[in-house]
Amino acid sequence: MNKPDSLPPLVREWIERGRQDLGLAALGLDHEENADAVAVSLQQAMEKIIKGALLATGWRLRKTHDLESLLYELIEHIPECRDYLDLGRILTTFFEEDRYPPGSKIELNVEDMHYYFDNVERFLDTVLSWLNTH
C-alpha cells in the first residue's frame, strides 16, 4: 500500500499542486464575481491530479489541458473515473473560454461553484484512494 509520503516525489508534487489549486478555488466559492478564477482553479486542480495519477502508472507527461482525453487514459487504471467525464468536459470548456480569446465571461452562481468544487474534491478522494492501494 502506497502512503502519500511513499509516492514518487514527482507524483506527490503533481497531487499537491492540484490540492493547492483546489484551495485557491475554495477562497472564491461564495462570490459570484470570482467565477472565472474558481472555474480555472478547478480545471487546473483536476488536470494536475489526473497527471499525478497517470505519472504513477508510468505514463509519459504530455502538454494538454483537455481533461476528457486525460480522463480516458486514467479510466484504464481507475474505472471509477468514468463518473467524472462530464465534469472534465465542463471544466475544460470553462478553461478554454477564460484563457483563449475570444472567450466569454464565465457565468456561475455560488451554488454551481460549490457543486463543481464538491465534485473535484470527490474526484481527488477517488484518485487518492487508488494511489493508496497501488
Description of the structure:
With 134 residues, the protein is mostly helical. The chain has helices at residues 9-28, 35-56, 67-75, 85-99, 110-131. The protein contains 5 helices and no strands. The protein has one domain (4-131): Nucleotidyltransferases  domain 2 (Four Helix Bundle (Hemerythrin (Met), subunit A), Up-down Bundle).
Topology of helices and strands:
Elements lengths: L8 H20 L6 H22 L10 H9 L9 H15 L10 H22 L3
Helix pairs in contact: 1-2, 1-5, 2-3, 2-4, 2-5, 3-4
Short description:
66% of the residues lie in helices and 0% in strands. With 134 residues, it is an all-alpha fold.
CATH fold-level label: Four Helix Bundle (Hemerythrin (Met), subunit A)
N-to-C terminal Cα separation, in Å? 6 Å
Order of helices and strands: HHHHH
Compute the CA-based radius of gyration: 14 Å
Number of strands: 0
* Structural class assignment: mainly alpha
Average per-residue pLDDT, rounded, comes to 92
What helical percentage do the residues reach? 55-70%
Q: Give the domain tally.
A: 1
CATH architectural arrangement: Up-down Bundle
| Total DSSP helices | 5
Query: Which sheet architecture does the biggest sheet show?
Result: none
Spatial shape: globular
List keywords for this structure.
single chain; 134 residues; mainly alpha; Four Helix Bundle (Hemerythrin (Met), subunit A); 5 helices; globular
